């Protein structure tokens, strides 16, 4: 019988992972201790550290500062320090690797300011020629809530730079879109969008639809998938006949599937019948498998 009281012989087949695991855990402890020390600092120290991009504790200081409820005086101090760090001169004087951090400062800490001051800061960021600064303004508006008073700054950013994020926020505000057609909106976007193009088109069409500014026949003909998607967003049953016509002309299964979803939501039985007829027609038009082979 094997004696289990004896220690097994060491083998070289499997590496000893215990020291590495312990080392990683101790590194976590060291990081937690460092953050705990930062959290013990005064609010004034945290404000200065958060806006000093040469301070190695800046990120932890910003995180700790977000946990505080700032007084009116502290909010004023924070805004003053932020504006100093947001100047072009301060950014240009920093080493290159720190400059992008200044671009994110407004979105990281702007929500700690009074709402009116935060919106003013967001508007100033949206007017900046650097795209990252404008994106910080967008993020700040998302965090404090997009409202009608943000429309002018968002519209200017979209018209000047084609920022798709600004356009996406504009579609949330009634009667805020510039005087453009649905096609002109998408043409103005100046860099690749994180949104699906049909999704962004649907947002624009839905906003124009709700604002009674949409050329329905043109949109259904030129942007059929986006138009159908927009109909589902606005929940408007009045264009049932146009949706039937769109389905009858389409050979795109994605359009038919989206139309089925919208027709079911709006309880448009005639559209559902038309989709069935169209899909059957398209299926019958396909070559048989033997013919394909």
Task: Provide an overview of this structure.
The mean pLDDT is 90. The termini are far apart. 68% of the residues lie in helices and 0% in strands. By secondary structure, the protein is mainly α. It has helices spanning 18-39, 43-50, 58-65, 72-85, 88-93, 96-109, 115-126, 131-144, 151-161, 164-170, 182-188, 197-210, 216-222, 224-234, 240-249, 253-266, 269-285, 289-292.
Note the topology.
Elements: H1 18-39, H2 43-50, H3 58-65, H4 72-85, H5 88-93, H6 96-109, H7 115-126, H8 131-144, H9 151-161, H10 164-170, H11 182-188, H12 197-210, H13 216-222, H14 224-234, H15 240-249, H16 253-266, H17 269-285, H18 289-292
Terminal CA distance: 69 Å
Mean pLDDT: 90
Query: Count of DSSP E strands?
Result: 0
What percent of residues are in strands? under 5%
Low-confidence stretches: none
Q: Can you tell me the overall shape?
A: elongated
Radius of gyration: 29 Å
**Total count of helical runs of at least 4 residues:** 18
Largest sheet: none
Helix content: 55-70%
């Amino acid at each position: 019988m094997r004696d289990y009281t004896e220690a097994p012989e060491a083998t070289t087949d499997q590496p000893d992972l215990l020291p590495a695991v312990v080392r990683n855990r101790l590194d976590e402890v060291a990081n937690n201790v460092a953050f705990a020390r930062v959290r013990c600092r005064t609010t004034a120290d945290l404000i200065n550290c958060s806006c000093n991009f040469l301070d190695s504790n800046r990120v932890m200081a910003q995180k700790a500062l977000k946990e505080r409820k700032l007084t009116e005086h502290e909010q004023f101090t924070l805004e003053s320090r932020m504006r100093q760090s947001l100047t072009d001169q301060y950014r240009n004087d920093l080493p290159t690797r720190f400059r992008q951090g200044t671009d994110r400062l407004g979105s990281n800490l702007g929500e700690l300011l009074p709402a009116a001051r935060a919106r003013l800061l967001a508007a100033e960021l949206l007017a900046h020629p650097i795209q990252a600064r404008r994106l910080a303004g967008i993020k700040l508006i998302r965090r404090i809530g997009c409202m009608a008073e943000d429309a002018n700054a968002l519209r200017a950013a979209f018209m000047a730079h084609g920022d798709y994020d600004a356009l996406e926020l504009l579609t949330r505000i009634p009667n805020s879109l510039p005087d453009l057609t649905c096609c002109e909106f998408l043409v103005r976007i100046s860099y690749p969008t994180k949104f699906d193009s049909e999704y962004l088109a649907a947002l624009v069409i839905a906003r124009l639809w709700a604002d009674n500014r949409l050329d329905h026949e043109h949109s259904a003909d030129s942007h059929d998938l986006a138009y159908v998607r927009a109909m589902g967003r606005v929940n408007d049953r009045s264009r049932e006949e146009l949706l039937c016509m769109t389905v009858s002309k389409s050979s795109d299964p994605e359009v038919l599937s989206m139309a089925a979803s919208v027709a079911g939501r709006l309880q448009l039985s005639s559209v559902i019948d038309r989709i069935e007829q169209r899909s059957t027609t398209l299926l019958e038009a396909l070559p048989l498998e033997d013919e394909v082979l």
